Structure formats: structure tokens, C-alpha cells
Amino acid sequence: xxxRTPMLAQPLQRPSAGRAxxxxxxxxxxxxxxxxxxxxxxxxxxxxxxxxxxxxxxLLLGGARAAGSRAGAVAPAGGWMVAVVFLTTSRPExxxxxxxxxxxxxxxxxxxxxxxxxxxLGQGRQPGGDPVRLGK
Length: 136
Hints:
This protein is mainly alpha-helical. 63% of the residues lie in helices and 0% in strands.
């Protein structure tokens, strides 16, 4: 395709092996941040809740900046979500990580909101070349 083809009309391509490994690493790091946030938010409420949400936001924005795409924020958000959902289930012995309090709900809902906001703020694909408007 030529240089004038809109970005949305170009076919999708698989990411390179290095980029896929980076996204996998960000996914695992997101799971670790989710686990740490789940433990910190209940231990030092309300400061721990703020620390957990700021840590998640830092990871998501840093991942988007490092990858240069929104997928850099989506990958750790997915890891965070998987870890937190896994921690919400109770075990047969009756153990659980999240208590039924306002702090836990703020962590769950606030973390999802932070993930959506950071994935939206992440840089999208930008065309290279001259800094002019497309279509001219």
C-alpha cells in the first residue's frame, strides 16, 4: 500500500517476537502489581488504597509509553484483572483476600476505572512522515 492509505485501512500484522515478549512481561508485571495492591490496600487503608491505585496507573502509563502503543497499557491491565479476579474467589477452607468492605470495592472498581483511563490516554498508532494532516 502507498503512504497515503489511512491507518485503519491497512491490514493488521502480527507483533514481532520481541514485542510479544514485552507484552507478556507486562502482563505478568500487571499480575504482580494486582497481587501487591490487593495486599497493601487492606493493610494500610486509606493510604494503601491510594498507593495501590497509583502503582497500577504508573505501570499502565509506563507500559504504554515504553511500548509506544495502547497495547502497552492493555497488557498489564489484563494481568492486573486476572490476578484480582483470581483473588476474589474464596477457598474451601474459607480463606479470602478481600473483605466485604468499602476499601475492597473501591480497589476493584477504582482499578478498573484506572485501567480504562490509562488505556485511553496511551498513545495510539501514529503515521510517520511529514507533520501534516492526512488527506491533503
